[in-house]
Design a protein that fits this description.
Rossmann fold, 5-stranded parallel sheet, 3-stranded antiparallel sheet, 10 helices, binds cytidine-5'-monophosphate
């Protein structure tokens, strides 16, 4: 495909989503939050009482999902599930269903449909390695676990949800460990990915870095 793709992969709470949104906005590109698809599949399956360890059953639910993305919100059969998808429990469910190859096959197909002119910025765990191996620019975003836990803590406090930083750090490290060690599309940088550690960067600095890399590629 001639339609350019920029992939941003990395661990939990590394700031992929914000970076992807800002880069897409700057370039006028579409954006794919692939984690939202895994979160939606986990939510849809748990709502109908499907065992999240049953890959075929979850894949069947995922295949039948009526998902719509509009104005930064996610709708499941017309219901706005965006807020529910952001909950920690949705992230944990997502990483549970993401370990099943049949689920990944269904969701990969949906992800390819997001590629449309003039371009796409896709964030997740395997965007550069599996879903868009021909991406024009691949970024692997990292930040220390302490930094990521602190950011997640701030987000929750801002929403009026109390949380314990140490507990958050343990949760995100457990989820990262599962994402890195699973056999189906484990989290790892693509061979041709550029590494970006944003622990000491503002969002604007990270955006500027990615846009600079992009200018050099063009
Ligand atoms: O990025 P986010 O936190 O929304 O992702 C939730 C979970 O979905 C991740 O922990 C991971 O297990 C899974 N995921 C994945 N592949 C992707 C995106 C997300 O396996 N491309």
């Amino acid at each position: 495909s001639d339609i350019p793709v920029i992939t941003i992969d990395g661990p939990t709470a590394s700031g992929k989503g914000t970076l992807a949104d800002e880069v897409a906005h700057a370039l006028g590109y579409a954006v794919l939050d692939s984690g939202a698809l895994y979160r939606a599949a986990g939510l849809a399956a748990s709502r109908v009482g499907v065992d999240l360890d049953d890959g075929e059953a979850v894949a069947a639910v995922a295949r039948g999902m009526e998902l719509r993305f509009a104005k930064g919100r996610v709708f499941l059969a017309g219901e706005d599930i965006s807020d529910e998808l952001r909950l920690e429990v949705s992230g944990l469910r997502a990483s549970q269903v993401a370990a099943h190859p049949p689920v990944r096959r269904v969701l990969n197909q949906l992800q390819l449909d997001f590629r449309r002119p003039p371009g796409l910025v896709a964030d997740g765990r395997d965007m550069g390695t599996d879903v868009f191996p021909d991406a024009a620019l691949k970024v692997f975003l990292t930040a220390s676990a302490a930094t990521r836990a602190e950011r997640r803590h701030k987000q929750l406090i801002a929403k009026g949800i109390s949380a314990n930083i140490e507990g958050l750090r343990q949760d995100l490290e457990a989820r990262d460990a599962r994402d890195k060690t699973r056999s189906a599309s484990p989290l790892h940088p693509a061979q041709d990915a550029l590494m970006l550690d944003n622990s000491a960067q503002t969002i604007d600095e990270s955006v500027a870095q990615v846009l600079e890399w992009w200018q050099k590629r063009r």
